[in-house]
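Contributing new records

If you add data, match the layout below exactly. Sequence lines come first and carry their own label; structure lines follow with theirs. Keep one chain per record. Anything else will be rejected by the validation script.
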Amino acid sequence: MKLLIHICCAPCVVYPLDVLRNEGHDVCGLFYNPNIHPYLEYKKRYDTLKDYAEQEGLKMIWAKGYPVEDFLRNVAFREEERCIQCYYDRLNYTAHIAKRGKFDAFITTLLYSKHQNHEMIVAIGHSTAKKNGVKFYDQDFREGWSEGIRRSKERGLYRQQYCGCIYSEKARYYRQKTLLSRERTGRNH
């Protein structure tokens, strides 16, 4: 099959790319992630994926621009539902590009992460596939989580510490800072 794979970052494509190629698929990557914040984080992920794709001979489609404002407008005052909007936006865009590019199906590296809502991604993938008239290729890559991490570290790929959006960055680092402050002051509340 001719597959378009939405890629959130280079470390998350290491394992899925090998699996898909070993299954005989013709794989092309797509980088579309307006959720990633700040821009320097976006650039690190972009540059790392660009280098990795060149090394692996992975054809890529690079979305134009950095529409972080669209992402923020779509989730403002609905922060608790931000992942639904984020998945929908990225998968709908991928489905649109897959249809336009005459791909047999599309898939996403979000199906690799143990930190993402797998069932929600699958449901949104099928929904956006139906809307755009192209197949969603539903494959669970989570079994290769540890292998992908090991291999991405061996290659020295930049590995981010949060999913990408400003809210996940806050959840990752603000909590740590608060805990460290409490430890320093001896306060638990």
